[in-house]
Amino acid sequence: MNVSQLSTMRVSLTGTPVVATKHAKVAPRKSVSARASASRVNAVATTTERDVKIAEAFEMMSMRGSEEMARDELVTALRNTALSEAGIVEILATMDEDRSGFVDKDEFKHFFDNIPDSAAREWSTSIGMSEDKVKAYMDVLNAVFPGSASQTDFVAAMTNVLAKRDFNRDNSIQMISLCRDEITRDLVEELDSLWGQSFNISSLAGMIFCGCTSFRAAMSHAPDRPVGQSQKFVFTVAPHVAVDENGNIGSVKRVGISNASSACGALIAFNNEALSGQCNFFVDNTDTEMSLLRQSLASHMNLASMASVDLVDVTKAAREVIQEQLEKTLAIVIPPGSEKDYAVCTGIQIHGPENQGFFQCFDMYDVTDGKKTDLMPAYQKTLEYRQSKMGSFLWAQDEISAYGTETLLNSGKDAIGAKDLGRFQFLVEKGLPLCAKDSSGSSLMHLACAAGALSIVKYLVLKESSLKDSVDNDGATPLQIAIENGAGEGIALA
Fold first, then answer.
1. In the UniProt record, does the keyword Signal occur (predicted)?
2. HSE toward the beta carbon, residue 450, CA cutoff 13 A
């Protein structure tokens, strides 16, 4: 969905046309819910009036009349507008800022106060390239870096795959090594948006020179885990390279610079030195990281054939070196038998035309309980699914599975408190584990019994009958909790 479509959507919801550029502020007005016919209001609303109208719209769209809307509620409302399914998907992803699976009043208002930075599939609209040129560009990119995908697709698919392996923002800390170049930051920010704040293990060109001390420091920042459960870490590491619209490797347009620039500058410098036979492998204390980069790449590559290598060769070799550095360090800081699980994702970050980001994922795996599992087949399948379903609501629903168990459990508690079986079932379908427990050891069955949510208790009994015998940290069963809360008779009959 492009900016003009977003503007159209605001007309359909508010009755007030807006003219905006990609990052422009808007002054929208909402007087009716998206489920109703849009009324046309000619007067320009004040900020106070606008806020009131937006609040009214939220109340009308919320089927449960609560402080937040589940994604299915929002979809039902938006489907009564002229929006396409792709438009709905983008609105969902943009509104749900904290990735909770629900949209609260603040998120709802923020959406209508700001035009979002569109992550639409048709990015050719925003960069002025025809569809034929976009296809030609992707053909060139994939010929050199096979399997490349948009940065957004990579992050979403990677997050989804790792969530299914029980790695998420609630239980894991991510450690990232990309080049120090400022144009790599958008990938870090996109990863942080789904995983929370990351620990920086980066050096020049994405090399990992920080060593075991930095790794141990990062690991000490991992979220607390229940007794008997392993700490979890996610590593995303990659060198970077630019590929412009004409397929020129290493060429990139930077914001504020009229002439073409280059990326990765360090790898280009090494490549030029190798071609000229002028590599200096002594450590220069005033240029430490570049000195170590030369040594690392030269020891990995065949010096005799370096006179014939190009930037693509050097970039691919850098990825291999970075993965070797990572795995060598991990072997030291996470020795066999450690109560630590980790996931690794390596690839090449690619800068396309007009600062559009791409990523070639080369390797993805996790090591859980000491066993390594290759995740590349799952990643490729998930990526293909995302790309084929981006125009529908299916992926937006599936993305909920990327949210952490803790967040889903909190949402489950809300559904139980409201005795909302439909919402509870939706959360279970989207990843809420039936075996989930809170910090007091209360299972979903304990919580349902305490709330007297009979329909949810019956549902849980049918789905997992053993939950009836679960005990909390005080040794209490769900039935005992129900009796304590005056709901024992009804629960016993269930």
1. no
2. 14
Quote the CA–CA distance of 81 and 454 in Å, as a whole number: 36
Question: Of 397, 429, 452, which closes a domain?
Answer: 397
The string over 290-308, giving b where at least 16 C-beta atoms fall within 10 Å of a residue's C-beta and e elsewhere, is bbbbbebbbeebeeeebee
What is the total count of domains within the chain? 3
CA gap 315, 265 in Å, rounded: 11
Same domain, 99 and 182: no
Exposed / middle / buried, residue 68 (Cβ in 10 Å: 0-12, 13-18, 19+) = buried
Please give the residue range of the domain that contains residue 54.
3-113
Tens of pLDDT, residue by residue over 329-385, are 999 999 988 889 999 999 999 998 877 889 999 999 999 999 999 999 999 998 887
- Residues 172, 225: contact at Cβ < 8 Å? no
Q: Does residue 282 share a domain with residue 319? A: yes
Query: Could you give the C-alpha distances from 149 to 77, 153, 177, 352, 360, in angstroms and in order?
Result: 32, 6, 19, 11, 6
Per the CB < 8 A criterion, the answer to whether 309 and 195 are in contact is: no
pLDDT digits (tens, 9 = 90+) for 169-219: 888 999 999 999 999 998 998 888 778 889 999 999 999 999 999 999 999
Phi first, then psi: give them for residue 396, nearest 5 degrees: -60, -40
Residue 344: helix, strand or coil by DSSP? strand
Same domain, 274 and 383: yes
Question: Which stretches does DSSP call E strand in 223-356?
Answer: 231-237, 240-242, 251-252, 261-262, 340-351
Q: Same domain for 283 and 380?
A: yes
Q: Does the bond joining 264 to the residue before it have cis omega, within 30 degrees of 0?
A: yes
